[in-house]
Design a protein that fits this description.
- This protein is α+β, with helices and mostly antiparallel strands and 953 residues long.
- The strands form 4 sheets. It has an 8-stranded mixed sheet with strand order 1-2-3-4-8-5-7-6, sandwiched between helices.
- Helix 1 crosses helix 4, helix 2 crosses helix 28 and helix 10 packs across helix 11.
- The longest helix has 20 residues.
- The two termini are 17 Å apart.
């Protein structure tokens, strides 16, 4: 439940960066004319995580940061502009984010939709993001594609406006509205931060509106407003270009100067003034939403990003609500008063906010007035309780370990360098942040608490089910003042002061890739423990870390009839107390080590995951041994975890995505175990006893049938010694299962799941598919689907998103497990475009199944899929995923090579045969989650049966 709530609480120290600020050097590669060297940071101490970088500027003000890492044949390119929603004018909210969308619509030398196509074709990935303070555009590609990426990014920096059209403007305006509807309006609790921003900040403060903006503001502007925004903020002197990976610095700088050097400087941009706020009194608001679990969100204004007390506030948030030892967990979650609770310090460039939240139980037990009183008691008690040095050191251990884990991907390192340069003019600013972290004391945290929290006014937002205002914390006493919206001044074309670059080369000629890169499969080692557990590993030296994943055969597939949810419940109990230690004591030990241990139940097994610094592996595995072999399984823990699971079922039924997934399971696999909800139902969970958990653990937590994958800075011999405790493990035989017969589906039917008043409709077209295979028909069908629905430039996405403006995104996939599979096409569309969208899905499937792919599409698929390997094995997580596939499906170690051969050789005829077989629209059932009252009469015009589907809670 807390995943999205905490998503905004990204603690910057958990990223990566330089711990050393005094290692700046002056040696630099030979520089082209117009490029100025600024500084260089190198790695001085192998025990200290540092991102080596060199920094340069161009004569037009562009800042360039380079990071060389030749461990994998890839590069990551990031262009960050120091403009976000905080730079928007009153009445033009959402403009920075809207403009981000426009930057992907082609430029003078790059055609419509070509930006996505060219990077996908190169085997790369790309995206852009906007927040309050910056907008960034980034791509990860094989290293031989770097020059092309610089050409693409420079073309939209210097040559965008000539390609902007009214039609593109209107389509992207519709796309942004769809995004707002999908991510905010049709999402449980989706509007909480909009309401909080309006209450925390005065209407003239740029944080008073959300990055997505208001629909009425988007409707107010025109295409010339967009052009003016570009001319004001998108100059090279307001940008940082950061490049990391397998690069040659001298050649890279020559390319950067060639493509970016001629772009004229934009208007001068000053650093924005800090704007922290204060409140004069407590403010209460209530939001009625289509939910069942009430939520209380409290907020206190604090400082700003980079303030002297920021680190103390960050650590204070962790003490209040950052884990099992936090005040909120101990006093509210563990006691059973709430389903979930936490705290985080949301810090941005101009102002920061301390948030505390609780998710109440469904029904009258979720009375937010009572819960607010309990939250206040917890916070008031902090003054007397204080923070111990031991507690603080444990939290510091977690954060500092996070800095090391943050070095595992080139994209992560580049993003951190870019952010630090943008906001602090120092790519290595993490050294300052960690110094500030280490300087935090119990006294500095107490000072922060007394200054910002204790006795200070706050904003309290009560989120309650519609019609249940009796549950609110207090009667609302605050209404946001009317927004200040100046009269829109229409801008004429001749008011736009265009900047015209002058090149000495033909920019319309797209650069060709340099010499091909070769993706090298990780070198693997394999052995068996004395009890038969298979171990597959690979050495990873880029960071001193170890990632271990063990799959034990304790999955949902083996749950007794009527006990759905037992596997997940058991996994949750494994995270609680052991016979020797409380859950809090274990959490303290793990925090001190900077390690983590998790249990996650899936369909066929439970994954036991371990991440740790290599130096702490022995101690971490000792904790794993205790957790795995000596769970306490106390009645108190069980009752709390069971209650949370029951409330979790209610929470999931609030989400349109979950409703669509469960409807798909029931339609495709009704009457079999594959149709059951992974979380269980209220009835099944109520029937589970602690004895059931103990029996499931005893039978299925067994080494027989277990596999282990390891990626890290450790040899096979050393690993064998470390895993000796697992080699001695004895247990029951590997469980077996019999695949049931799948139901025969009726002729095409539309299955309606009612979500009254929904502003968007969730659509899925589904059919039964093939079990997993790495190199067989399922894989080939995925290749056939690539141009239909498997990438941004696919037919379905371009149709529904880019042409019609019905959705924020549409696609499709084919997936398979050990026994069954499915083919799925999906979109979340505007409610008023529901019928039209279904018709377009059916038409696209019909066309592909009857006419097949074009020669151009076949070539695009070969290039895009065939070059992805350079990106596939970079991080320990990606390596572990690859190793897990090999063990789970008994794949040969060269299966990736075999797949590449298929991609290169599969014929157009074979792709079309598969399209005819798998994409016939008549074979698909249609799932719709939306407002049944308004939609049913529309769908009746399709002339197919319509059935209402009631999903069991």
């Amino acid at each position: 439940m807390q995943k999205w709530i905490l998503g905004v609480a990204l603690f910057s120290l958990a990223g990566c960066g330089s711990l050393v600020s005094d290692t700046k050097e002056t040696n630099a590669p030979k520089l082209p004319e117009g490029v100025t060297f600024v500084e260089q940071v190198t790695k001085q101490n192998s025990d200290v995580p540092v991102i080596p970088y060199s920094k340069y500027t161009l004569s037009n003000g562009l800042t360039v940061v380079l990071h060389e890492d030749n461990s994998d044949p890839l590069v990551h390119v990031d262009v960050t502009y120091h403009v976000g929603s905080a730079r928007e004018e009153l009445g033009k909210s959402g403009f920075a984010h809207f403009f981000e969308h426009m930057m992907f619509q082609g430029s003078e030398n790059v055609g419509d939709q070509e930006h996505f196509r060219l990077i996908t074709e190169a085997g790369g990935t790309l995206n852009g993001t906007t927040n309050r303070d910056r907008t960034n555009y980034f791509e990860t590609v094989p290293a031989n594609q770097l020059e092309k990426m610089l050409w693409l990014e420079s073309d939209r920096m210097g040559f965008l406006l000539g390609a902007v059209s009214q039609r593109k403007f209107e389509i992207q305006r519709s796309t942004v509205k769809n995004e707002r509807a999908q991510r905010y309006e049709n999402r449980p609790y989706g509007l909480v931060y909009e309401r909080m921003g309006e209450a925390l900040f005065p209407p003239t403060h740029p944080y008073s509106w959300q990055t997505i903006g208001y629909v009425e503001d988007l409707d107010r502007v025109d295409v010339n407003d967009l052009k003016a925004f570009f001319l004001r903020w998108y100059g090279p002197n307001n940008a940082t270009l950061t490049i990391g990976g397998d690069i040659d610095a001298e050649q890279t700088l020559a390319w950067v100067n060639k493509y970016f050097g001629s772009i004229p400087r934009g208007p001068e941009v000053a650093k924005p003034a800090k704007k922290p706020v204060t409140l004069d009194a407590d403010r209460y608001l209530t939001l009625e939403d289509k939910i069942q679990l009430p939520m209380l969100l409290m907020a206190w204004p604090t400082s700003y990003n980079g303030a002297e007390d920021e680190a103390s506030l960050d650590m204070l948030a962790r003490v209040i609500g950052g884990g099992k030892n936090s005040l909120m967990y101990q006093n509210l979650v563990k006691t059973g008063d709430v389903v979930d609770a936490g705290a985080f310090h949301d810090c941005a460039e101009l102002a920061c906010t301390m948030y505390v939240y609780v998710m109440g139980q469904s029904g009258d037990k979720g009375n937010l007035k009572t819960l607010r009183s309990k939250v206040k008691n917890v916070l008031d008690g902090l003054e007397q309780r204080g923070v111990s040095t031991k507690e603080l050191n444990e939290l510091k251990g977690t954060v500092e370990a996070g800095a090391i884990f943050g070095l595992q991907s080139v994209s992560g390192k580049v993003s951190q360098l870019a952010a630090y340069e943008t906001f602090f003019d120092d790519p290595g600013y993490l050294g300052v942040e960690l110094k500030n972290l280490r300087s935090v004391t119990p006294e500095s945290m107490e000072q922060a608490y007394m200054h910002y929290i204790n006795g200070n006014p706050s904003v309290t937002l009560s989120v309650v089910p519609k019609g249940k205002t009796s549950l609110q914390a207090a009667k609302p006493n605050f209404t946001p003042p009317e927004r200040i919206i100046p009269e829109h001044q229409k801008m004429a074309d001749d008011q736009l002061l265009l900047r015209e670059p002058v090149d000495n080369f033909d920019r319309s000629v797209m650069p060709e890739p340099s010499k091909p890169v070769e993706a090298v499969m990780p070198e693997l080692y394999q052995f068996e423990l004395a009890n038969g557990i298979k171990v597959l590993g690979t050495k990873y030296r880029e960071t001193p870390t170890v990632e271990l994943q063990m799959l034990i055969p304790a999955g949902r597939r083996f749950e007794p009839e009527g006990k759905m949810g037992l596997a997940k419940l058991t996994a949750s109990m494994m995270m609680e107390a052991t016979k020797n230690s409380s859950a809090e004591e274990i959490a303290s030990r793990l925090d001190n080590l900077g390690s983590s241990i998790g249990f996650n139940a899936g369909l066929y097994g439970t994954v036991v995951s371990v991440t740790t610094l290599e130096k702490n592996l022995t101690e971490t595995l000792a904790i794993l041994e205790e957790r795995l072999f000596a769970p306490a399984f106390t009645e108190a823990d069980f009752e709390r975890i069971k209650k949370q699971a029951l409330e979790g079922v209610i929470y999931e039924h609030q989400r349109p995505g979950w409703l669509a997934s469960q409807a798909s399971r029931e339609v495709l696999y009704g009457g079999t175990s594959f149709s059951l909800p992974p979380e269980g139902t209220t009835a099944s969970l109520n029937d589970i006893t602690l004895g059931d958990v103990k029996a499931f653990y005893q039978r299925y937590y067994t080494p027989n049938g277990a596999d282990i994958v390891v990626v890290g800075d450790i040899t096979a011999d050393k690993l064998t010694e470390q895993l000796d405790f697992l080699a001695k493990w004895q247990g029951d035989p590997k469980p077996q299962y019999t695949t049931p017969s799948l139901p025969e589906l009726p002729k095409q039917t539309l299955w309606m799941v009612d979500k009254p008043g929904a502003p968007q409709t969730m659509i899925r077209l589904v059919r039964q598919g093939l079990p997993y295979d790495a190199t067989g028909e399922l894989f080939e069908t995925q290749l056939s689907n690539f141009n239909l629905a498997g990438n941004f430039n696919s037919r379905i996405n371009l149709n529904l998103r880019e042409d019609k403006g019905y959705t924020y995104g549409a696609g499709g996939y084919q997936m398979g497990g050990k026994e069954v599979g499915q083919s799925v096409f999906y979109a979340q569309v505007r409610a008023d475009a529901s019928l039209a969208s279904v018709k377009e899905f059916l038409a696209e499937l019909e066309k592909m199944s009857t006419e097949g792919v074009t020669d151009k599409e076949v070539e695009f698929m070969r290039l895009a899929v065939g070059q992805k390997d350079a990106l596939n094995y970079e991080t320990p997580g990606k390596k572990a995923q690859l190793l897990g596939q090999i063990l789970t499906y008994s794949l040969p170690e060269n299966f990736v090579e075999t797949r590449n051969g298929i991609v290169a050789s599969i014929s157009k005829q074979r792709l079309n045969e598969l399209a005819a077989k798998w994409f016939n629209p008549e074979d698909y059932q249609i799932i719709v989650v939306g407002d049944a009252k308004s939609l049913t009469p529309q769908f009746e015009t399709l002339g197919i049966p319509i059935k209402t589907l009631q999903l069991q809670q």
